[in-house]
Amino acid sequence: METGALTLPTISGLHFSILAITPDILLLVLGVFLFFYLIVSAVLFYHWSAYGMHSKGIVIGKTIFSIVSVILLLLSWFSITYY
After folding, report:
1. 6-32 as b/e, with b when 16 or more CB fall inside 10 Å?
2. Which end of the chain is more exposed for a tag (fewer CB within 10 A), N or C?
3. Residue 31: its pLDDT value, please?
């Protein structure tokens, strides 16, 4: 019995023009995500500030949260612009 490489069926006859993903669409999605992310982040920072959570651990957590957020958003933006 001969075993060949597994191949997926071709779908070249199907047209997915509705699903065309362009950098403009991805930037729009990133912008909408960023809008909601900023709202959630503002609520978190307000909560941390309003309830007197100024302990060393919270300050470190806020710093890590901010740095990681900026890094991930920049990586997303760079990935979209070079897509």
Report:
1. eeeeeeeeeeeeeeeeeeeebeeebee
2. N
3. 95
d(CA 62, CA 16): 43
Q: Residues, the chain, total?
A: 83
Model confidence pTM above 0.85: no
The single-letter code of the amino acid at 6 is L
What ranges do the domains of the chain cover?
Answer: 22-81
Tokens at residue 27, please?
């930037």
pLDDT tens track for 9-63? 666 665 656 667 888 999 999 999 999 999 999 999 888 888 766 788 888 888 9
How many whole angstroms separate alpha carbon 71 and alpha carbon 68? 5
52: left (phi over 0), alpha (psi -120 to 50) or beta: left
Tokens of 79: 């990935």
